[in-house]
Each structure stands twice: as structure tokens, then as C-alpha cells.
Amino acid sequence: MNKVVLDAAHFDGKAREWDANPVFRERAERIARAMRARIPLDRTMTALDYGSGTGLLSFPLQDALGRITLMDSSAGMLAVAREKIAAQGLNHMTVRQVDLTADPPADERYDLIYTSMTLHHIPDTDHILRVFHGLLEPGGWLAVADLDREDGSFHGPEVEVHHGFDRAELAARAEAAGFGEVVFDTVFAIDKTKDTGTRRYPVFLMTARRR
Ligand SMILES: C[S@@+](CC[C@H](N)C(=O)[O-])C[C@H]1O[C@@H](n2cnc3c(N)ncnc32)[C@H](O)[C@@H]1O
Hints:
This protein is α/β, with parallel strands linked by helices and 211 residues long. It is 29% helix and 31% strand.
């Protein structure tokens, strides 16, 4: 079977309709609520939303953070995010088109990095966890929201992505990359109906701190 990679052009094409999906909006709201419960957010923090898309997760957090960079490889997603930031007159949020797997910036540091539904699109999990570690201040927070391990039916067998994550395995990878205090919560579930019936895909939030 020829595998399909969901590249930046794919997400460019989805950008204008992204926020119309009520499941995406509710998922982001629930993740934001769980992050507020786990992480002592404050307005001195500089934050990176990696794979931000249109910023669905950053907008419900913006009043609790100092400066937020919305980073994504899709120019289309970031164009929508930029319009939303301008419409709300927010000057502490900026967008940047960067793929950290190819071009990790050398001299930037954040107090918090969060990433929602993006880790499964990144082939080398260990590498991106090390990049996140390198971009965080000592004691800085990492928050990863993604799918629990599934059988590949979420995207379909032809799509080249991780089929969710086993929590214990991801915790071990995070610890090997230099993170401690790894905690998981179940924050949401996505129901998908196909010919074979309805399947439920839980979404976790993993929080951890840079050692
Ligand atoms: C499933 S969407 C999630 C968007 C947003 N976080 C949300 O929860 O609505 C995945 C996002 O990750 C971005 N992405 C995928 N691979 C990436 C990479 N290597 N670097 C930066 N962004 C990436 C895509 O462009 C897309 O915007």
C-alpha cells in the first residue's frame, strides 16, 4: 500500500475550515482546562505552541501567559492564526513558520512548550522531545496532548503517522530526553463513525518538567 504523508500542503488546504469543526474546538478547550489544572501558568511565562494550527489551544490560554509563539510548518494554518490574533488586537501572540525537525533555533528558550495532536505527525519522537528539552528553561514545562495507542483506524491505514502513543512508553521516552514529573490525564475522547460502527479514541495530556 502506498503511504500518504500529511504534509504542510495538506494542512494548508484544511486551514480555512479548521475552526468550523466543533470537535476540534471542544478538544482544545478541554486540553486548555487540563493544562490550567496541572501547570501553574502565569503572565511572566513565554510559551511555544508547536504545531499550533490556527491557534485553537492558544486562544483559551492567552490571558494566563506572557508571550506566546504559535509555530507551525503550514503557512495556511498560520495565516488563519494571524488573522485571529489581529482581529482580537492581541500583541503578545506571534506566529512563526518553522519545522523544528529540520530547523531547531539555537538560542531561544521558553518556560512552557505545548503541542496538541501534532506529535503523531512527527516521525522521530525521541528527537523532537530532545529539541523541546533544548528549547526549555531548566524547570520549564512540557505539555503534550495526543491520541492514546490505536490500531491505525483514526487516520486510516494508508496514512503515515504514529498510531497514537502508549503512555508508559512515551513517559520513558520523555524521561530519557531529560524530563521528570511526567503525569498523564485523559482529557477528551473523539468518536468516529465508519461503516463498521462508532469507535472512541481517547486523548491524553502528558505534562512534564525539564530537569
Ligand atoms: C492535527 S493538527 C493540530 C493543530 C492544532 N494544534 C489543534 O489542536 O487544533 C497538526 C498540526 O501540526 C502541524 N505540523 C505537522 N508536522 C509539523 C512539523 N514537523 N512542524 C511544525 N508543525 C507541524 C500541522 O501543520 C498542523 O497544523
